[in-house]
């Protein structure tokens, strides 16, 4: 037995080897075993480190107690002891055999870490991981006789690591998928280790722009906003940082935009408590912050509105019977601020005579939930003020009144103004009623609401004519349409109403009236009402008609003798044109000029009566405007040699017009230009195109016109008043006729002028192609 000393300390495995009858095996009794096997076996058996020996060419297996647990129960132990390698490890032989061959062939040891070598144990084939080394065992003849495997089973560690990896994976996946922006910054440079889509969206970056880069390199836009300092602090102190609604500029829509963020920086520490990374979580709360700002803004605006409206605000708790109010409320009672006014004091400051008003308003609140009344209060200084109270009732869940909120307004001035207005209106009516003229008023919309007594006396009607615009019935039916259209034009434009129309008298007769109405405006220029008068002009109108009739008759009667005189003057001129009697020639020239003037005057007068009676007719034809202008210039130039008339033609357009009348207009312009510019030598005429009109303009450098006269010169018999007037004889009808002629041609007539700087009179005729 001495020879088997090498098996002495082998524990269970030593015992098994000792007890085995090896004589029947190819290796023979232990006593015959080579020294190299004995030595290796004794080392392995006494080692506490797991070891396995493959021996000889059959690779017979020996193992120690420390290796034993790796074989499990119900498995290879103990029958693989001394068994051929191929048989003992049949299930994994294709993994083990190449490694063993390598050792045999090269004589070099192998090293495998966490290598999967499944093993049949515990009644099944289990996945087992090993970290092991195969090293050669040399025999006495220096050749490799076996392989020593020192190994540790690392299955548990491998599983634990896998578990950890899985957990990590899960953790990362969780971060990636959570609906909150999350990321991890690694190390002191804050390298973006992981960031989910929401975080990328928050940063306004793509993953490739920022992943695995220091955050302030991948997102330089975030620099200089204090975030570096915060992160450094979290990293060095290990204390988390939370921010609410922090404004940060970040890339948005191709530029930088301020966004508001809620975020958390949470330090992540290792087992030694050292910060290794920072976990960050953020939410974009821009929309909420913006709407909060808007609310604050609108609250501010509301308070500005309330302040400027001078409304006192109050709230009354119906259950507690207590009230609160603002400073303005107290100021309406004459106090400086709300602290100076108590609920009790308010009760004493209410005007006792208005008790019934307040009571009935309070009864109404119960029915309608709305409070609205006007009553008086005593001011702190004893004066009496009118206030308007408005309020709304609020109800609790049981539909019981819980509180009331509302406003009060000092309406003392308003009341006084209204009272004054009523008094003034009363006075106006008293006055208006005594007037022989018709006086009437209308509201801003043009609805007539008042006639003075004269209207009722004249028409024999009563106030019902004010209803539904039935007043129009007092207007003669021929004048009604134009009356209505002029009136509604004044209402919409705010311009004065002026109209001559007939009113039907009680006896059915109608008389001409000149009606005028003016709008009354408030301080802001808004129309408050219209005041109108109608004056009887019937007699004047008749006289006017008689005058027109007379003018018409006279001009007719005058025309024949004047034409005859003109003819004889012409005959005389022809007859004596070569006479040497200078006096005769001069007298005939003067006669001719005066007869021409007289003819023009009579023709003009006749035209006026034609215009009045509507019998001025046009004989239209197509002609070149320049030819007409040249003819007229020649004619005028002939009579007025003092002035030089220059014609500038910018168009050669033809017009479709009454040649005779247009000549008359131009003659009037030129005669006036010469007449009203005695100190100047030139008059210029220009023909051109202006928009869709052919325009002819006559410019002189004469006395010019005042602004207010420019429109009026086209009125009948209008002559500019002033000291120059006597120097320039005339009737004031030439321009009236000219404007009527141009109006009948659907053209335009006008004047540009400045006092003392000459005038440009022009007419425009529409181009008709
Ligand atoms: P009149 O016969 O008085 O000239 P018109 O109807 O032709 O009548 O002219 C009306 C008024 O217009 C004239 O009285 C004059 O005051 C003014 N007027 C007309 N043409 C000119 C002009 N070229 N320069 C200044 N005032 C003019």
Topology of this protein?
Layout: H1 11-19, H2 35-46, E1 51-55, E2 60-63, H3 85-88, H4 93-106, E3 112-116, E4 119-121, E5 124-126, E6 129-138, E7 144-153, H5 155-177, E8 181-186, E9 191-195, H6 197-203, H7 207-210, H8 215-218, H9 227-237, E10 241-252, E11 255-269, E12 275-284, H10 286-309, E13 312-317, E14 322-325, H11 327-332, H12 343-349, H13 355-368, E15 370-378, E16 384-395, E17 401-410, H14 412-434, E18 438-443, E19 448-451, H15 453-459, H16 477-493, E20 497-504, E21 510-521, E22 527-536, H17 538-575, H18 582-613, E23 620-624, H19 625-639, E24 644-649, E25 654-658, H20 659-675, E26 682-690, E27 693-700, H21 709-712, H22 734-744, E28 748-753, E29 759-766
Parallel strand pairs: 24-26
Antiparallel strand pairs: 1-2, 1-7, 3-6, 4-5, 6-7, 8-9, 8-12, 10-11, 11-12, 13-14, 13-17, 15-16, 16-17, 18-19, 18-22, 20-21, 21-22, 23-25, 26-27, 27-29, 28-29
The structure holds adenosine-5'-diphosphate (ADP).
Bound molecules: adenosine-5'-diphosphate
The tally of helices reads 22
Low-confidence stretches: none
The secondary-structure class comes to alpha+beta
Rg of Cα set: 60 Å
Q: Tell me the helix content.
A: 25-40%
Mean pLDDT: 90
Commentary on this structure:
By secondary structure, the chain is α+β, with helices and mostly antiparallel strands. The chain folds into six domains: 2-155, PAS domain (Beta-Lactamase), CATH 3.30.450; 170-290, Beta-Lactamase; 310-410, 2-Layer Sandwich (Beta-Lactamase), CATH 3.30.450.20; 416-536, Beta-Lactamase (2-Layer Sandwich), CATH 3.30.450.20; 542-612; 617-766, Histidine kinase-like ATPase, C-terminal domain (Heat Shock Protein 90, 2-Layer Sandwich). Helices cover 39% and strands 28% of the residues. The strands form seven sheets. Strands 2-1-7-6-3 form a five-stranded antiparallel sheet, with helices on both faces. The chain has a five-stranded antiparallel sheet with strand order 9-8-12-11-10, with helices on both faces. The chain has a five-stranded antiparallel sheet with strand order 14-13-17-16-15, with helices on both faces. A hairpin with a 2-residue loop joins strand 4 and strand 5 (124-126). The protein binds adenosine-5'-diphosphate.
